[in-house]
Each structure stands twice: as structure tokens, then as C-alpha cells.
Amino acid sequence: MKSSFILIAFAALFCGTNVEAGALDNEAKILLTFKQKYNNSQSDLAFLIDVSGSVSDYGFASEKIFVENLLNEFSVAPYSTRVSVITFGAEVKTDINYIDINPLSLTHQKCEFKPWFEHNVKHRYGWATNMKEAFSTTSNLLQTAMNNKHRRSNVHTVSILITDGYWNRGDPRANANSLKSNYGVDVIAVGVDRYSQWQLEALATSKDLVIGVSSFSKFRELAMYIRGDAHDKSFMEVGGAINVPRAMVAIKRPSAAAVQSAEYTSASARRDIMEQAFQVTVIRFRFCRFVLACIRGTYKKWPTPDSCLPCPDHSTTDAVGSIIVNQCKCFTGYEGDPSRDIACTAVECEQLVAPDNGGFRAVCGKVYDSVCEFQCNSGFNLVGSNSRRCQSDKSWSGNAVQCQIITCADLPTQAHGVKKCTGNGNEYGNTCTFTCDVGYERKGSSTRTCQADGQWSGSQATCEARKCPALRQLRLVQLNQWIA
Questions:
Q1: Which first-to-last residue range defines the signal peptide (predicted)?
Q2: Contact 455, 430 (CB under 8 A)
Q3: Are 287 and 266 in contact (CB under 8 A)?
Q4: If DSSP states are collapsed to H, E and C, what string results for the chain?
Q5: How far apart, in whole angstroms, are the C-alpha atoms of residue 262 and residue 182?
Q6: Which listed site, 123, 180, 204, 298, has its alpha carbon 20 to 30 Å from 392?
Q7: Could you give the CA distance from residue 448 to residue 464 in angstroms, rounded to a whole number?
Q8: For the purposes of burial, counting CB atoms within 10 Å of the CB of 63, is it exposed (0-12), middle (13-18) or buried (19 or more)?
Q9: How many angstroms separate the Cα of 361 from the Cα of each of 300, 368, 387?
Q10: How many whole angstroms separate alpha carbon 287 and alpha carbon 387?
Q11: Nearest-CA neighbor of 191 among 55, 65, 71?
């Protein structure tokens, strides 16, 4: 016999926080009775959620919290609780349909419902409150499930209406009554803030199934109160030869701390076991499998067995575990918006211009991270940054570039001579020539040129007085006497 940790169980757990004494007692009692009646049983739940213009963002978020918390203790799966979500404003939309499904489906369970409901059921701010079509859509959904032979017989079916206003676009009472009489549906009517009590009573199966809450803040308190303890188990159907009509398989799930940092997906499995009490030979079950979150740069539209999708080109996510494309952000240096399908493209800086008497060492681009390198012509010095990079804020790093002409030290003016220079007399390529006055002779270079290294060619020029040769003295003659 194979040992197994599979447990045959039927559970109904509830643990709620306290609310203000008497403030929500009646409403909470109705909902707790509902949970005790339908939890861990075969049931179809159809939520009708008001998305008319009078519902604020806070109100819509409260409606979703209410639905999530009401389902917190339910096992959403094809064999147990099936759920549909219909939103109504001026238009009516079926956001989730887990009722008209193949009973052997390996999907359509809470592992997939929760993220889909969180991210894909959105406020539409419709200007009308079309309850009539909402009830009609629910009837059509159930009828289609029957036509497709997907509707289970003898299951509890409940439609939960959540609204903050009065109906318009037609009287919905006939549609609600048709839903109740033709499909055996219990209607619970929940009104918040500006609801009409008599309208809710006209729509609900009985006055005992009418819930009125004065504000969305009170409604949120009620939602938190009915939440109860989240299961630490996933309840799954047992197949095979057993001596009971229904049983549930309980499989341990990860700790609450682990759940916060991970995603869930679904899988199917078979195990052969021997169970004397029920003579079980084969158990088929589905379970939520603890898996790694998507790595950075990838995401899942919702937690499913699907592979993680890569972010659009030139974008990534801030961390692991991203579940929607909105969490993809353009790389540094790129601009766009992946959430709106706007491609991420490199930012562009202003095009740089080559400096006078110089140029670029290579082609100079202008998109993010492009590097432009400068050089000056011979005889010119580069002033500024010899390379500049296009930055993410569309500015260039470094400082502007100039090519300044090289200068040599001024040559001194010559005594007893003349210096003549071209240009400014001390810049690269300038030449200076030297001549001496009459009676003086030049020593050094007659022409000197300012060179690229900032030095003058040649040697320093000077003017020295010419000297006559000494006269020869005559023999036996004294020159001074001769002169005398």
C-alpha cells in the first residue's frame, strides 16, 4: 500500500473580525447564512456588479473586495462552486463565465479566477443602471449552459446583485422573476448608499435576502467582516470507486508568507491509493501548484500554466513576479509606454556640430548612449571634453568643444634691428624675420616660424656691431710725430 498525505474532508470554516455592535448585524447574518448554506457544495453563483457612473472608484473597489471576500472560503472549481461575473451600466458585459463550462475542464478554478477578476474586471463608468438586461444576461447564460449540457442538475444557484442606485433602462422585475421561476435562482439584492429599498425587495427572492448598507465605507467593513479565514487547503473532487456521492481531497498549500511572494498555477495528477473506509482505488484531483514567479523582464497576463511573456523590446520590469504588461517599463534612455502599446525607442539628444578647425574621429550619432569623439587640426589645441555621451535626459555629458590655435611665446624686439612677423606674430604658422641696422650684423636665424608644439623654429637672432680690422703700424716711423 502506498502511503499518502491525501485527506478526505468536507470543511466549512469561518472566523471573522468584529464590527461595531449592531451596525451590520442583520446584513452579516444574511451573508453568513448564505456561506454556511452554499460553502463546499455544488453551487452556481452569478454576481451582478454595478459599474454605472454613480459608482466611485472607491465604491467599485469595495464591490470587488466584497466578491473576493464572499468567495474566500469557497472552492471555485468545475466540480464545486462555479462563478460568473456580469457588470452592468448602460451596457452589460459578461466578464467571467465559469458556469457554462465543460465539467471535465482542467481550468476555470480559483487559481485562475482570482487574478483574472483582479486585473480584468474593470470599472466602465456607464451612465445608466441597466438591471433589466443584467438579469436577462444571467438567464441567457444559464440557458446556454443547459443547451450545451454544461448546467448541472439539482445545484444551488444564486444571483447576487450589488448596486448603489435605482434601475433605469426599463423595469427589471419581470426579468428577475423569470430568473427565479424558470431557473430556480435565489436572488440576493445588495444596496449601498443611494439604493432604493422597495426596488431591492421587489427583486430579491424574499425580504430576508435584502441587504442595505448606508455607505461604501460601511460596505467595505461588511466585506472585511464576512471574509473569514482563508483556507490553508485546496478542496478537490475525488473520482473513482467510492461509496459516497461526493468527497473532497484536501491538499496542503504553501504558507501564507510564501503565498505573498509567489504565484499559483494549476495542474492535474493521478494517485493510486488504498482507503479502507471508502474503498478508493483512484483519486483524480486538481491542485494549485507553488511555482516560481516570472523573472525580471517577463510577465504573465494572469497566473496560469502559460509561460511568462517577455516585455516589449527595450523594456523590463522592476522586480520578479510581474503579472501585467503595465509593469513593463522602458529601459533607461528609452521612452514609450508598453501599457498603451507605444514602443520604447531611444531618446535623442540635439545633434552636435563639428568644431571649427577640427572634426569628429568617427560618425557622431545622437541617440541614447551614442559617444562622439573630437579632434582638432594640426596647430590647434582641443578645449573642452574630447568625448561626449548622449544621456537619458537628452543632454550631452561633458563640456562644449573648441579648437584653439596654438601660440608661441612672443619673440623679443631686437636692439639695433627690426623684427617683422606675419599674422598676430605668435600663432601657429606665423613667421618672423629679422634684419639689423646698418653697421650691425645678425647672429642667429633670419626667419623663425611658430610650430605646432608651441616652439619657434631656428635660434634666437641678435644684432652685433660690425668691427673694422686694426690698422698696421709702420716701421721706424712714429705715427704721431708724422702727424705733427
A1: 1-21
A2: no
A3: yes
A4: CCCCCCEECCCCCCCCCCCCCCCCHHHHHHHHHHHHHHCCCCEEEEEEEECECCCCHHHHHHHHHHHHHHCCCCCECCCCEEEEEEEECCCEEEEEECCCCCCCCCCCCHHHHHHHHHHHCCCCCECCCCHHHHHHHHHHHHHHHHHCCCCCCCCEEEEEEEECCCCCCCCCHHHHHHHHHHHCEEEEEEEECCCCHHHHHHHCCCHHHEEEECCHHHHHHHHHHCCCCCCCEEEEECCCCCCCCCCEEEEECCCHHHHHCCEEEEEEEEEEEEECCCCEEEEEEEEEEEECCCCCCEECCCCCCCCCEECCCCEEECCCCCCCHHHEEECCCEEEEHHHCEEEEECECCCCCCCCCEEECCCCCCECCCEEEEEECCCEEEECCCEEEECCCCCECCCCCEEEECECCCCCCCCCEEEEECCCCCECCCEEEEEECCCEEEECCCEEEECCCCCECCCCCEEEECCCCCCCCCCCCCHHHHHC
A5: 44
A6: 298
A7: 19
A8: buried
A9: 46, 19, 10
A10: 60
A11: 55
In one-letter notation, the amino acid at residue 478 is Q
Q: Which residue has the cell 443547451?
A: 147
Task: Copy the grid coordinates of residue 376.
Answer: 582638432
Taking residue 331's Cβ as centre, other Cβ atoms within 10 Å add up to: 17
CA-CA-CA-CA torsion sign (383, 385, 386, 389):
negative
Exposed/middle/buried for 216, CB within 10 Å: 0-12, 13-18, 19+? Answer: buried
193: left (phi over 0), alpha (psi -120 to 50) or beta: left
Residue with cell 502599446: 341
Length of the chain: 484
- Burial bucket for residue 470 (CB in 10 Å: 0-12, 13-18, 19+): exposed
Model confidence, pTM: 0.47
